[in-house]
Amino acid sequence: MLFWWLVAGLLAGEFLLLSILLLPLPAFLINAIVLLLDRINKPLYVVLAVMCWVLFDSTMEMQKYAIKPPETTLNPASTEQLFHKNKWRSERNFYMVAFTWTLLVILLRCHALARRTLNLQNERDELLALRKANQDPKATPAKPETKKSQ
């Protein structure tokens, strides 16, 4: 039971991180979030591998309840209720793990895109600084030539 609470907590944490990552925040906050994700990037891949195993396990559990059990003479109503309870629980766990796995993949991809965007912005800032340093202060910037239409 505790295991599924951990999966639900992971799902809530992923949802929170993904929501924060996708919000239009100032650059310094995005930098802080990306640095946080850089620190936990490798453990996130370990969690992804564990989620793959849990997804497989929950699929097997769901398959176990795909076929109805044989009728028993003791208490068929109780057996039927227990079967449907277990089937519902296994399906719930499968969907919860599948959604957690999907959000984790999306979170890792968004982190990679945010990291690339920050790297490109840093490169652009460095190039602009270099361009300013190399530019002659007395020279005026050249105007782009426009073609006259005929």
Write the layout of secondary structure elements.
Layout: H1 2-22, H2 27-39, H3 41-64, H4 76-134
Helix pairs in contact: 1-4, 2-4, 3-4
Please, could you describe this protein's structure?
It is a single chain. It is built from 4 helices and no strands. By secondary structure, the protein is mostly helical. The protein is elongated and about 95 Å long. Helix 1 packs parallel to helix 4, helix 2 packs across helix 4 (76-134) and helix 3 (41-64) packs antiparallel against helix 4 (76-134). The protein has helices at 2-22, 27-39, 41-64, 76-134.
Strand residue percentage: under 5%
The total beta strand count reads 0
Question: What Rg do the Cα atoms give?
Answer: 27 Å
Order of helices and strands: HHHH
Counting DSSP H or I runs of 4 or more residues, the number of helices is 4
Keywords:
150 residues, mainly alpha, 4 helices, 78% helix, 0% strand
Task: Give me a quick take on this structure.
The protein is mostly helical and 150 residues long.
